Amino acid sequence: MPDPSDRTADVVIIGAGQAGLAVAYHLGRRGLALGEDVLVLDRGPGPGGAWQHRWESLTLGGTHHLHDLPGMAETGLSFASAPGDVPARALVPSYYGTYEERHGIEVLRPVTVTNVSRTVDGYSVSAAPGSAVERVHARVVVSATGTWTSPRVPFVPGREHFQGRQLTTADFSSAAELAGLRVAVVGGGTSALTFLDEVGDVADEVLWFTRRPPTFHDEEIELSPERGRVAVAIQDDAARAGRPLPSIVSVTGLPRSPLVRRLEAAGRLERMPMFAQMTADGVVTREGATIPVDAVIWATGFRPEIAHLRPLGVVGEDGGIVVEDGRVPAEPGLFLAGYGPQASTLSSNRAARVTAKAITDLLVR
Predict the structure, then answer these.
(1) Strands of 277-279's sheet, edge to edge?
(2) I need a labelling partner for 231 at 20 to 30 A (CA). Which of 36, 161, 248, 275 fits?
(3) Strand ranges, E, within 49-153
């Protein structure tokens, strides 16, 4: 009798966010049987990818533009016409769940993949105890794990001695939890600005620290076509060289959006240089001045979640991985979806079609 904890497929997709679902959709369109030839694994309890874990007050009206998945029009839904005042962590999972059902994308949940290793004829994908499946054997692996589970927190001397609260973007749930506190927000991206806005309404004091002075541009949208092309090119260069991926905001700057104008009017965009160290009850500036704070929000971005690929030897010492057009040259059967230049929802959609063709060509060979 076969072991029920083991599954076999031609393709296993790790992650059911935008990138993973888009690849699954195109593989289905190319004739592979979803749920049999293609298995999709996801660590979340339900549809929605990382969106189901975001904070309550975040809406589609207050975040980056979210592009529709390929074939979403067939479901009768579109993010372009979605209500902008509904919590994104409720709306996006609802739309993704409808999408999975309409297109027959069976997702095994919850499955926390711990490592991917080579076998004689492909790969073995192993999961943590308690997962919906313990192991999957496949000829091709698509890693579409995103970044949400791997927040980036910079090294700061004394951080381990700080007695107040420390939150990453992924930890943040509600500004109300920080009411009446002195809060330091660290980071130069859109999430940091959102925290300055929301927390600033309830905190006793909110201070903004960044490593470099933020750059604002006069476009209201996050990425114009030109800025988008520059950002994709820089991300692609880093991926092809196997370097750690740079942050998008360091390339594009910040738009003078309604949020930025609101913060300017409230006097909350007075940025301070990154502090030099932390103490039990505050931070110390580069000039040696001590500033008492009760909580620190590390809105300092995320790293790609690729730890499960380390057994393959493709992850460099600095955490980078060589990826060319979504493929890992050192591993012909390994693809990364939503990585580097594919990180935006638009670019991941476009890349998914190319990835699906490359996978089906590989399976035929």
Answers:
(1) 277-279, 282-284, 290-292
(2) 275
(3) 107-108, 113-119, 122-127, 135-143
> In this predicted structure, what is the pLDDT of residue 65?
72
105-116, pLDDT tens digit by residue?
999 999 999 999
Interatomic CA distance for residues 95 and 71, integer angstroms: 12
Per the rule left: phi > 0, alpha: psi between -120 and 50, beta: everything else, 25 is alpha
Mapped onto helix, strand or coil, the DSSP state of residue 167 is: strand
Q: State which H helix or E strand residue 328 sits in.
A: strand 327-328
CA gap 80, 92 in Å, rounded: 12
Closest C-alpha among 4, 1, 10 to residue 36: 10
Question: Is the CB of residue 355 less than 8 Å from the CB of residue 340?
Answer: no
- Token pair belonging to 23: 């690849």
What burial letters (b/e) apply to 236-258, b meaning 16+ CB within 10 Å? bebbeebbebebbbebbbbbebe
Q: Find the DSSP H helices in 54-189.
A: 88-102
User: If pLDDT is split at 50, 70 and 90, which confidence band does 2 have?
Assistant: very low
Q: Do domains 6-149+303-364 and 159-218+256-298 have the same CATH topology?
A: yes
Evaluate whether the domain defined by 159-218+256-298 bears CATH number 3.50.50.60: yes
Nearest Cα neighbor of 4 from 121, 108, 116 is 108
Q: How many CB atoms lie within 10 A of CB 317?
A: 5
Helix H segments across the chain? Answer: 18-29, 88-102, 190-200, 225-241, 249-252, 258-265, 345-364
CATH of 6-149+303-364, one of 3.40.50.11740, 3.30.565.10, 3.30.470.30, 3.50.50.60: 3.50.50.60
Share of the chain above pLDDT 70, in %: 94
Per-residue pLDDT tens over the stretch 239-248:
899 998 887 7
Cα-based torsion angle of the residue sequence 179, 295, 272, 218 in order, rounded to the nearest 10 degrees:
-60
Task: State how far the Cα of 206 lies from the Cα of 185, in Å rounded to an integer.
Answer: 7
